[in-house]
């Protein structure tokens, strides 16, 4: 059971998410979809930066964790929502209204990855909810930045994006980045700097 949960939750680990998002941005640019490439980079980068900032802040203000049961917002939940929800927007974005698709995809992927984190007992419900809010903001930003009423990319471009996403996922799934430890070290350095 635990092995299966780790296998599933690894689909939202930064070891996969970072190279996958870079590949998608490059593929969009290669097909001349500059607006989507920029929107993708801003929405994903903003989501990842927000999560990193929140995780460091939670380390700095540990008293908040004791009062709220919020320990470390779930980056897997946020990343899964914005990346996979965003991919659906790019691939299906002209066939289904973008805002509705962003909300639905975000909730499905957020729920899925949030549950894996809860079942593995690495996050609290509050951690998952904060991650879900950040991820949902990211995927909604992507929907807005790509243009809610803008026509979808040509079918061959959408097929190529799907193929790049599939290939990237197959190549990088299982790679893990220990971002939590690095963020804790950053928070410790900030704390030490504030004391001196």
Automatic annotation (TrEMBL):
Residue intervals of the Phosphatidic acid phosphatase type 2/haloperoxidase domain: 71-143
Name of the protein in its database record: Phosphatidic acid phosphatase type 2/haloperoxidase domain-containing protein
Sequence intervals crossing the membrane: 12-31, 38-61, 73-92, 99-116, 128-148
Pfam families the record matches: PAP2
Region forming the signal peptide: none
InterPro entries linked to this entry: PAP2/HPO, PAP2/HPO_sf
Keywords tagged on the record: Membrane, Transmembrane, Transmembrane helix
Organism of derivation: Roseicella frigidaeris
Transmembrane helix in keyword set: yes
